[in-house]
Amino acid sequence: MWGGRFAEGPAAVMREINASIPFDKRLWRQDIAGSLAHVKMLGDSGIVSAEDAAAISAGLERVATDYEANGVAEDLTLEDIHMQTEAKLADMIGPVAGRLHTARSRNDQVATDFRLWVRDAIDQADAALARFQQALLTRAEEHADSVMPGFTHLQSAQPVTLGHHLMAYHEMIARDRSRFVDARARANLCPLGSAALAGTGFPIDRESTARALGFDGPTRNSLDGVSDRDFAIEYLTAATQTALHLSRLAEEFILWASQPFGFVSLSDQWSTGSSIMPQKRNPDAAELVRGHSGRIMGCLTSLMVTMKGLPLAYSKDMQDDKPPVFEAHDLLGLSIAAMTGMVESATFRTPRMRAAAEAGFSTATDLADWLVREGGIPFREAHHITGSAVKRAEDLGVALDKVPLADLQAIDARIDERVYGVLSVDASVASRVSFGGTAPARVRAAIAAAREGS
Ligand code: ARG
């Protein structure tokens, strides 16, 4: 299609390094949609005749039908999806196909196609994350009262509820969704009509093509229009942040499913066996979600590094924008679906969680707080007294609320039997009623608010 000034064809490796059809064939729907909008505008503006525009539109519909039925061939001589489609159109309707590319370049064409594709990818991610949030809400509600150890430094810190823990992930995903929504708003401007880089002398109507493709309007600078890939980078940023959150939950599931923890049993559907050790139920899906997050981050890095040294406007390096975006999209879709399935079907072993919360002296802070409240003791001193109580419990091999009163009073005479009211893990979580706290009533309120908002 650009052979006019060439005497020789490209070397075989040149053809291969140049071709993007093996991966950009995924853009075929967007490419057809962009061309349909473009040719309608060419017809409406009188740049091509109404008759030619109608013939080209009908031909493009036939190309789409053919792609739908047979897929897109990977013909390296046709380089990319844009050339592939134009060649097919010419096969079908003859030389009039050559009028389609009037007032257009592959540079604005690919920028438009890719924005349309990323916009769809954003919508898919958002819908999948909404389903994931529903799963979190359902399980959080079920476990609004289930006590588990809360950790800092992965050491038992204070008791929390499993519902509260799951709602923490609901918060992260809410931020992720808002990042996707935000990225979509900036992505939703149409570069079509920027042409190769400088705009065009044909009397095109960029507003109408932008509107026809569901964009909010045309991009404002033709150089930026063809060379901007922020929309793809922002998509990958949101995807990376999401993957990072999924990876943290995956890591917790892996840890919790291990025998020493025993907090969760993943369903058969989300576990795999070992070919040598018959007892094994491995959390492979969670491990792969954790692994995929690294690859998604790599995709973001890849595109940022591709873009950082490019002068304006289009350079062929930019063809490498698509593989990382496609890869991240595929990995993210799998990761969200897998985590949703795992959350929906996991069996939380609440007696184990409760026992672990009770075993870790996790109500020590409650004892110190009680001494401050009831005994008027300064917190630092209360902290010290509590430390001695924990030591005593450890020596006796019992939980804090099982240390006899006489032992506690030997440490500090100001302690009386009312202290047992705050030493149980249930009393501890019930007391954390501050906004955003783990008290079951608070967790239920947070779930109700989340349901209201979604
Ligand atoms: N396949 C190219 C890409 O994906 C399309 C744009 C080609 N433009 C050009 N001037 N060679 O970036």
From TrEMBL:
Protein name (database record): Argininosuccinate lyase
Enzyme class: lyase
Transport among keywords: no
Superkingdom in the source lineage: Bacteria
Main location: cytoplasm
SUPFAM superfamilies in the record: L-aspartase-like
Reactions listed under catalytic activity: 2-(N(omega)-L-arginino)succinate = fumarate + L-arginine
Fumarate lyase N-terminal domain mapped to chain residues: 6-298
Gene, per the UniProt record: argH
Molecular function terms from GO: argininosuccinate lyase activity
The protein's Enzyme Commission number: 4.3.2.1
Recorded family membership: Belongs to the lyase 1 family. Argininosuccinate lyase subfamily.
HAMAP family: Arg_succ_lyase
GO biological process: L-arginine biosynthetic process via ornithine
Origin species: Sphingomonas aliaeris
Recorded GO CC terms: cytosol
Keywords in alphabetical order: Amino-acid biosynthesis, Arginine biosynthesis, Cytoplasm, Lyase
Recorded metabolic or biological pathway in which this protein acts: Amino-acid biosynthesis; L-arginine biosynthesis; L-arginine from L-ornithine and carbamoyl phosphate: step 3/3
Domain Argininosuccinate lyase C-terminal: from-to ranges: 361-430
Localization of this protein: Cytoplasm
Gene3D superfamilies, per database record: Fumarase/aspartase (C-terminal domain), Fumarase/aspartase (Central domain), Fumarase/aspartase (N-terminal domain)
